[in-house]
Every structure is written in C-alpha cells, then in structure tokens.
C-alpha cells in the first residue's frame, strides 16, 4: 500500500496566505510595522525582531522560527500568526493560549525577575475564513470578570482574530483590503500594492527560491521520518496480535523485509 507524497507548492505560486511567504514579507520592518499599526490603529516608533536577539535561527535553512512574526514596539510584544487552515474556533483559541505561554517564558528567561515586569502582548491570528458567529472581521479578546463584565483582568494580554470573511464594516479600509488580498481577491490599495510588489520582487530572487525549496524538502523529510516511525509502531502492535506480514502490509507502507526485521526485534 503506497502513499502519495505531499507535493511542494511551486515558488511562483506562493501568496501572502502561504506561511513561508508571509514570514518572508514580514521580515521587512516597514511592512510589518505598518500592518500592526493599521490593525490596532496606533503609532509605533520602531520595531525590533525578538527572535534574532534570542539567537534563534532566522534562516529557513536552519532550525526554523517558533513564531511567525515576533516583534517588539513601544515596549509591547506582538506575535502575528498566519492561520491557513480552519481548525475550528476551539483549536485556534487554545493555540493562542500556547503562544502566550511561549511569549511569557521567553520574557522571563531573558532576565525578568518579577511577573509584573512581563511586557504587554498582542497575539494576532490572520484567518482567511470566518470564525465564531461569522459576522465580524475582527474579534478582540481580553479577560474579564464573569460576575461583572465591566471589570477587566489587567494581565496585559490581548488576543485578536482577523478574519477575511465577515458581514460587518468593522475594520479600516486598509485592513479590509489586506484581508481580501489574503484571500486572493483582486484589490487596489496602496498598502496592499506595496506588499504585492515586494512579493513579486522576492519571487525573482533566485536565492530566496533556493532557500524555499531547501526548507520544503527538509520539512518533507521530517514528515516522512515521522510517518515511518508511526508505521513501525503500528506494525509492532499488529505483530503483537499475531497478524501476518501480508495483513500488516495492507495497513502500513513498509516492505516485507522491514516488517520481518521488526518481527525479529519484537521477539
């Protein structure tokens, strides 16, 4: 029983909604800063990329970046994540919880001594699909008291979901244009034009194309290794139940020789 390998999306077909291209575009401070400013309707003096300061590998041929966009501006932490797949409201909500824990751990490990010294943070998920009731383009969450919703738990954390699908006129024209662009709709907008031009420029850079292909091949190898380990475990469980080699080969993508070798190991 063979399995088809996941095909690598051609470099020329990548869009802003593709995780790799999104990270690459957000590596340009001007665009990254402008996106945050437009989402939150604020002005930031300057942003700095935190993962490089923490000696995390920023190259896609390296170990990979833990967060899509992890920056600081005006003493506030911003994490922006492109969520291509709709895993459902609950799954994405728990993901924000996990990312928040990562951010706090990084801040504390950098020398912060007291919890009250934790910096304010915003986790922003960009979603090319509808969420929650499907009405809004923007959902902002902070903690509040269940008995009195006017009382806010001031823990400095905010989670925002920006959705391309929505019925209300609840975001700025620039952000609405960005969300439409994220979904692949035709858009005419100065901010989006700047991003589109950058993507076109990046696609003509052979170095970036090679970096992308190298990264994708490494990811594919990692996925294949993970699948192989899982199939070996399945085969071992079936051997323990006295299943024949032929029966096992119907369920896993292992050769007869590989299964026979596993049978020797289990004995």
Description:
This protein has 2 domains: 194 residues, no CATH class; 53 residues. It is 45% helix and 13% strand. It contains 9 helices and 6 strands. A 6-stranded mixed sheet has the order 1-2-3-4-6-5, sandwiched between helices. Helix 7 crosses helix 9. It is globular and about 65 Å long. 22% of the residues are buried. About 5% of the residues have low confidence.
Mean pLDDT: 87
Q: What's the number of structural domains?
A: 2
**How many runs of DSSP E, i.e. beta strands?**
6
Radius of gyration: 23 Å
Distance N to C terminus: 25 Å
Uncertain spans, ≥5 residues at pLDDT below 50? 53-65
Question: Percent of residues in helical segments?
Answer: 40-55%
Please name the defining characteristics of this protein:
267 residues; alpha/beta; 2 domains; six-stranded mixed sheet; 9 helices
């Amino acid at each position: 029983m063979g399995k088809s390998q996941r095909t690598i999306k051609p470099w020329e077909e990548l869009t802003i909604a593709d995780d790799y291209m999104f990270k690459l575009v957000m590596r340009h401070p001007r665009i990254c800063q402008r996106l945050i400013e437009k989402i939150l309707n604020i002005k930031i003096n300057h942003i700095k990329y935190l993962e490089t300061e923490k000696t995390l590998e920023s190259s896609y041929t390296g170990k990979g970046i833990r967060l899509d966009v992890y920056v600081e501006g005006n003493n506030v932490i911003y994490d922006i994540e492109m969520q291509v797949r709709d895993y459902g409201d609950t799954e994405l909500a728990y993901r924000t919880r996990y990312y928040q824990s990562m951010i706090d751990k990084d801040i504390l490990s950098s020398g912060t001594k007291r919890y009250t010294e934790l910096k304010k943070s915003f986790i922003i998920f960009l979603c090319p699909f509808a969420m929650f009731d499907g009405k809004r383009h923007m959902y902002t969450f902070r903690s509040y008291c269940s008995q009195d919703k006017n009382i806010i738990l001031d823990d400095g954390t905010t989670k925002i979901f920006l959705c391309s699908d929505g019925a209300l006129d609840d975001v700025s024209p620039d952000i609405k244009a960005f969300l439409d662009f994220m979904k692949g709709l035709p858009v005419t907008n100065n901010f989006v034009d700047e991003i589109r031009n950058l993507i076109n420029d990046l696609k003509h850079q052979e170095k970036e194309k090679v970096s992308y292909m190298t990264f994708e091949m490494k990811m594919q190898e990692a996925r294949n290794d993970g699948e192989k380990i899982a199939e070996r475990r399945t085969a071992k469980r079936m051997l323990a139940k006295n299943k024949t080699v032929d029966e096992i080969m119907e369920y896993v993508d292992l050769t007869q020789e590989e299964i026979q070798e596993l049978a020797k190991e289990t004995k």
